[in-house]
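TL;DR need structure tokens for one chain.
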Amino acid sequence: MVFAPFVLLLALPSGCAAQRVAPADLVIRDATVLDTRTGRSIPHRTVVIRAGRIAAVMATVPFGGGAETPPATRVIEARGRLLTPGLVDVHGHSADVLADTVNETGNTEARRLSMAPDSIAAYRRRYSDAYLPYGVTTVRDAGSDDRQLALLEAWMVPAPWAPDFYASGGALVSPDSTRITPYAGHRVVADSADAVRTVRAYHAAGFKHVKLYWRLRAPEFSAALREAQALGMTPFAHIDNKVFSIREALGLGLKHFEHAFTLAVEAATVDELVAADRLMLAMLGSPPPLGAYYLYAMEVLVGLGPHDSRMRQLIADLKRGGATVTPTLHAFAGPLGLAPVKTRQAGGVDPVAAWPAAARAQAHAGYANLAGYVYQLYAAGVPLSLGTDTSEPGRAALSEILLLHRAGLPMADALRVATLDSARAIGLAEQIGTIEPGKRAHLVLFDANPLEQPEAVLGPKMVIKDGIVYNGANDPAR
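>> reply
TL;DR here they are.
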């Protein structure tokens, strides 16, 4: 269904008084609405909400000036404040949010959680607290423990006090001859047949998404991708370390790629990757300390420089293939001290605190190149999505918006990435991502306008989920 923007669906018969219309659940009066399709700010709009959906978006009429705002159970006087769709995180990990269930070595194992109904509800309240106060109303999980299927299935039932949750199951990986302990959010598939069975099982559980991880070898990768496509699921992938190729995946029809830094790994030669690893070890010592990977990844980008022809060609290939990229800038900017918002690190340890100044300077130079390539993706017309990949995802989501802006995106476009473009990436653009009649009433009303003061995205805001104003106590079980 296609909805025409800003069309009034609520029409009064000629001569009928406004008070005879059944009251709306919520009216937001006289807001400045961000049209995420065009980037335009539309002032003096009144949004009418019924049964969790937007019933109408109309021009605000002055009091006593004619056909006034329909009666409503609650009216919010926006007084010109900016109203945007709710934010969408396409790359979150539930295990990271449930921080006390993850060990201190950096998320390599999660303790077994209770799958009793009251425990599942309690975990969801904690999850909601990590997202909704910051304006994130929809989340796609990017890999969770298969032992928690009962939790994933329960969380997929929408609730006005929690973000909408879309599970993907465990991130698929092949057996690892190096005996690396799989992360709890990984699902090891023995071979191609097992990969197909796993995808089918996730589909049968109601999952609409499946994640393919870089440790998935070519036969299993291809089998899982084709099965997900045949079932109408949305496959997405973190492709890295030359185990599989982004271009091969494009050739197989994969559309959604996680982490912009992986493009640099794809473009670089094996010798260049080895050189980056040696530089990292020379600066940090051997064996490398916790967090050394942040320097290694940035060394790869330093080696490529800001205008590598192979990167330009890869970006062109992604554009031609109709692909999207989730940059996850904050996942690097946060640990490197470059983010506008500080978030908790895995295990509560700052992995770069003990680095020498020269290592920090190299990492910062690499991050500048990473941000530059994200801007080149944007300029080339490759759609971007918002992904957090951290243990404080709501804070990271706001940081990601500002980091995209600092990379060169106009603030309206950074907000479009966080709303409409992310909704498109997970197949929900007909439900969320714009403020139009018929859409879910997932909304954020900012106290100060981020389009005028970008840092205001971090400031106070009112969050509306399914037409209900979130206040931290909506959950009846609290």
